[in-house]
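Before drawing any conclusions, I looked closely at one protein, both as residues and as discrete backbone shape codes, quoted below without any editing:
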Amino acid sequence: MKHKLNSRRQFLQQSSLAGLAIITSNTMMNGQPVSHLQQKAEVGKRIGIIGLDTSHATAFTKALNAPEASQYAGYKIVAAYPRGSKDIVSSTERIPSYTAEVQKYGVEIVNSIQELLSKVDVVMLETNDGRLHLEQALEVFKAGKRMFIDKPIAASLKDAQAIFAAAERYQVPIFSASSLRYSASVQEVRAGKAGKLVGADAYSPMKIEKTHPDLFWYGIHGVETLFTMMGTGCQSVNRYINDDQEVVVGVWKDGRIGTFRGLKNGKQEYGGTAFGSNSVIHLGPYGGYDPLLLKIIEFFQTGIPPVSKEETLEIFAFMEAADASKNQQGAKVNLADMYSKK
């Protein structure tokens, strides 16, 4: 009874300050009642999710909709359209449980992307299947809403180019990134902690999904780590394969060499090494989703993408060139040929 009285007194204080009616809700979060005010976001800060077939959707919801999540400037996920992949079993089988999970955090489930867009201000496109992103993104562009597109931005370089072209046509800012990009040690290398970078190695698990080019599904985490350190300017790649691992060697236009190692067996970890003029830096542990979420919120506020179109497209050209090298028994493939292929 004392808990109820204290909760009511606190709620009355909040309501009088805001000039709002006293409204309570039966929604539960982590076993505790969640007030109406905690579930809702101000107009302008309402996030909608497209696709509940990835663990990112539930992880982002738990972080953003937590009552104590003051670091996110009041942005909350208020609605979600659950349909993601249509035929990738590892994705489709997640939808029922992930739908139930986000509902615990006050998220309304809607029946279409159009319905979602009528209820939100900004969008997280979380569908795990990159083949659907262009079609889904076009609906968001037409509504004029800023959007974060989770990895992979598309299932082909061609579709990635089409997404950016549509974003420019509709004048809607977007960006895409792996959370590995914002690991603290990776950002330190990018900021120059190792001095002038002469080369870098990165590694990550490499689960393969037959509907996507090999590196698009999971290897993208390590590839994006590599490009975060090295920047753009890769000209060619060679890919080497055995049963336990794969190595893609990239040569940059200034002669620097960067490698991605995909781990198929053995211990599965993320990491890498930066070789600089001042020091050699071994990347630290993965820092979780929070640094990426903070960048997403900053992007929603400013409309300024933290990752350039050019860098994202070069990452995808690198990964498609790696597939082409595989098909040519490890021969060198120029990234320029990926951009020009029909």
